[in-house]
Amino acid sequence: MDAWRTAIINADSTSIRVHGYDVTELMRHAGFVETVFLLHRGRLPGPGERRLLDAILVGVADHGPGAPSSAAARIAASGNRQSVSAAIAAGVLAIGDEHGGAAETCMRLIADRLADAKTTGETVEKAARRAVEQATLEHLRLPGLGHRAHSIDPRVSVLFDLAQDAGVSGEGIRFVRALAAAAAELIKPLPINIDGALAGVLHDLSFPPSAGRFIFIIGRVAGLTAEVAEEYSREKPMRVRIPVTYDGAAPRALPNKD
Q1: What pLDDT is attached to residue 258?
Q2: How many CB atoms neighbour CB 254 within 10 A?
């Protein structure tokens, strides 16, 4: 059997190195955010990059027990008091295309449309408008826009301001803003949400589209641990009972087989 290959971690009998950096030096002189950046990018971030990634992880850490991932973790914790890892895993498994995955979808849209724009010579704004036109024609939801709880997502302006301060505000953020402007003109006003902001910022930080989901999961796990801990400490086992209205067939008897 061939040996597995990795360019991330090298651990031997006396040391652990992350992309060449000794983990004990990272422990002394770096932080968790720098290490997350290093794990995914193979280099340490600059101060502005570190601050941006830190803000993203804070912004996605939790959104209340009603969010799908938190609700799933709470339900699992309510019925399983023996396995913290199972409850947290249930929350992670609830992260998908509609919850936590929109940033990745938006990043793929940004990457594809900007690549097309470079080929055709059109502007970022024109590329965003064409994306809205196609979504309208195909009755598709635009990733990164709209929010069920917020008319204005308060996290978006913070991320965009930090990106501006860090000097990394580029075509990704520009595209997301243009997407929102085109949607307001062609469909209706749809606020940029945390997924759209995260997508634009991570694109401008040169992360691949898959990082949109990975980074969300890293941040959200912190919130899931708190949700599970609160469920264990404040609530009784099996306390979750979801109201259900039955609308199926009326009571009936099996046919007589005699």
Answers
A1: 67
A2: 5
The domain defined by 102-204 folds into Cytochrome p450-Terp; domain 2 (1.10.230)
Measured between alpha carbons, how far is 171 from 178 in angstroms, rounded to an integer? Answer: 10
In angstroms, the CA 27 to CA 50 distance is 16
> pTM, whole model, 2 decimals?
0.91
- Residue 15 confidence (pLDDT): 96
Q: 91 with 224: CB under 8 angstroms?
A: yes
* Alpha-helix runs per DSSP H in the chain: 23-29, 32-41, 47-60, 68-79, 84-93, 102-120, 124-138, 154-166, 171-186, 194-204, 211-234
Where along the chain do its domains lie?
Answer: 8-44, 102-204
Q: Which residues of the chain have pLDDT under 50?
A: none
Question: Residue 92 has what pLDDT?
Answer: 97
d(CA 68, CA 184): 28
Q: How many CB atoms lie within 10 A of CB 166?
A: 19
Distance CA 129, CA 121 (A): 14
